[in-house]
Amino acid sequence: MCLRFIRGVAAARWLIIASALIAATPAHADPGDPLAVRRWLGGAITIETHWGLNLVVDPGTESRVKPPLRTGQQQVVSTRVYDHVLERTPNSAEAEWRRAPVGADAARPNAVRVRTLQQDANGAAVLAITVDEAVVIVAPQSLQRIDLSVIAEKQPPVDLLVLGVPSNAGNELKRLVDAFKPRVVLLNPADSLTEEELEQVRKELSTKQIERRAHNTIAVSSGGPSPASTRVVLIGESPWTPPAELKELITAMQEACDESQAVFAGLTAEQLNFQPPNGTHTPRWNAEHMMGRQLQFFSQIYHALSPEIPVLDLNPRQMPTDYQPAHPDWDGQEEARQMQRVMDFTLRFAYLLDGVDLDRPAPGSRWTLRRLLKQMQRHYDEHTANTVSKFNQPGWPGGPAASR
To answer: Which positions carry the signal peptide feature in this UniProt record (predicted)?
Structure first.
């Protein structure tokens, strides 16, 4: 379902697109879960959470928004002042974008919190976006001088400052950085900067260098390292494209995951929790195991390449007698979404694999990329087949999967 409203947008306002993709959020979000922040043509940015919520922040009108969004619920919102929450509950097909309740915790689990901190005389605003305990501040290119002292003092530690860079930056950039003291500054010019303009920005921010990347994604988390001085980064406006051989391996893994999701999505919670009389694992264990292995192995590699991404371990206990389901009330669609969340995580930060040899052990791992990707494909096939075999076990609960 697609919900769009408030289409005529003044340039001084932010345009927010809250997109809850098919990957719905779970019951809670863990501190340190990584976000992906992406830049797009014209100064738009997207914030993609680990649990499948997307937020597009664009400084202009709806027609300027360039980020591609997959099919899912979308809400286009423009207002002078934001104090809103975007969240989705398990087993729900839709997310909710609503005003934050009075006294709401900015770090509320399972939510993206969007707040207007302050506006200038022309209505341009500084936004605070908090999710999974990570804090992202977004300042537009058009921002004029405002008093930052009070809001900066009350603001929790800032992980990323997305800093709009006007053509005549002046000293406003330095003032914003000094006020918020972010770990990382992401430069966000509306148009390409010349080398001379970049050097001017570098001097204005008193930084030794500006880190430059061709692709358009940066990882952010609340558990990221605190550098001795603020890092300043400039990224591109287009996603990273994997080499042909790596893309082929990734695609094969995706297809195996899609086929597995199609099987699990048709199961009820009762069927997922079915304990076969032969003592083998429940269908839910198979889903958690497939998801957990992929998440752990790839997060180990990504962590070695970027400390902003923690090692994520959601693996269930190995033996059937020791196993306790992580979410016994989730239905098959939610378990399938969980698989997709992990696949999205793998793809979201795959830019870190640029230059990694397919046939040498990957950083932080005993696996080569080629072996790991092929093993994940086989792993999905194997455990999905194991699950399907349980449909003919004595006592299998009736339902859609019983006839498979």
So the answer is: 1-29
**Cα separation of 143 and 123, whole Å?**
9
Fill in the amino acid letter for 168.
N
- Tokens, residue 85: 């929450």
Question: C-alpha angle with apex 335: 99 to 220, nearest 5 degrees?
Answer: 55
By CB neighbour count within 10 A (0-12 exposed, 13-18 middle, 19+ buried), where does 233 fall? middle
CA distance 140 to 146: 13
> Can you list the alpha helix ranges (DSSP code H) found in 216-282?
244-264, 269-272
Q: Encode 257-277: b = buried (16+ Cβ within 10 Å), e = exposed.
A: beebbebbbbbbbebbbbbbe
Q: Please give the model's pTM, rounded to 2 decimal places.
A: 0.88
What token pair was written down for 39?
């830049």
CB 116 within 8 A of CB 140: no
The 3-state DSSP class for residue 140 equals: coil
Are 367 and 376 in contact, with CB atoms under 8 Å apart? no
Question: How far is it, in rounded angstroms, from Cα 392 to Cα 401?
Answer: 10
Write the CB contacts of 153 (distance below 8 Å, at least 6 apart in sequence): none
Q: Kindly state the tokens that stand for 215.
A: 């692709």
Distance (Å, rounded) from C-alpha 388 to C-alpha 286? Answer: 11
User: Helices 283-305 and 369-389 sit at what angle, rounded to 10 degrees?
Assistant: 170
Residues of the chain with pLDDT under 50: 1-13, 20-29, 61-63, 71, 106-107, 402-404
Strand order in the sheet with 231-234: 96-99, 83-87, 111-119, 125-131, 134-139, 160-165, 184-189, 231-234, 211-212
Nearest alpha carbon to residue 289 among 348, 335, 321, 346: 335
Please give the helix or strand (H or E) that residue 86 lies within, else none. Answer: strand 83-87
E strand residue ranges, 120-156: 125-131, 134-139
Between CA 125 and CA 339 the distance in angstroms is 37
CB burial of 64-102 (b: ≥16 within 10 Å; e: otherwise) equals bbbbeeeebbbbbbbeeebebbbbbebbeeebebeebee
User: Which DSSP symbol is given to 71?
Assistant: S
DSSP state of 396: P
**Domains defined along the chain, listed by start:** 3-234 (3.60.15), 244-403 (1.20.120.450)
